[in-house]
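User: Here's a chain of 230 residues. Predict its fold as tokens.
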Amino acid sequence: MWDPHGAHAEYAIAPATTTFTLPRNVSFEEGSTIPLAAMTAALALYQNLGVPLPWSPVPKGQSYPILIYGGASAVGAFALKLAKLSGLNPIITVAGNGIPFVESLDAADVIIDYRNSDVPSAVRAALGPHKLLHAFDAVIQHSSWAHILDVLDKDSGVAKLDVVGPPKEAKSWPPQDMASVKFSRTFVASAYGKPHTGRNAEEAAQDRDFAYVMYRYEEQKEVVSYCGTF
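Assistant: Prediction complete.
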């Protein structure tokens, strides 16, 4: 009855790091997608993959390739939008039935249909002369992680792959023969400062502080309107 976090309470208490003000033109329904899906994408891109932040984007004319597998998923769609805000390019994504939705986001430079494509070959063609050092798997389906590992520049020693969860079909995770790739896992609990299998207590505390800053950034009218509405 007196639980401060009760779902049916007239008033609720939430950590300051996980709250933000919605602009007047953004509904609660639109804003409700930010704390889970958008923050998961933000943690993956900025905390785990370490790509440039949207308020300090890649300089114009400079390439910074990224592969986002599952661009039609909620998390993948937010990742595409944030990648565009950060000036990453080329932004390559893989999708299937949801390709029309991905096209409507106007964020990806290249959309690959996994249903009728050799995904690794299509990604290499999209990369051209560029090397792929950053990839985010927002779905872990249809051998997505295996396709990503096929195209990551493993010889660089700095390639990174972030996933939303370990693939069920993998015998071991991370793969034992991929020591040259930095693997990470994103789970939104760390935005609340809670450790999980992919983030220890110190890293979770850093994610909590990042979430506070990211939500302050997302309070801006144009950012919430862009990221909070599909």
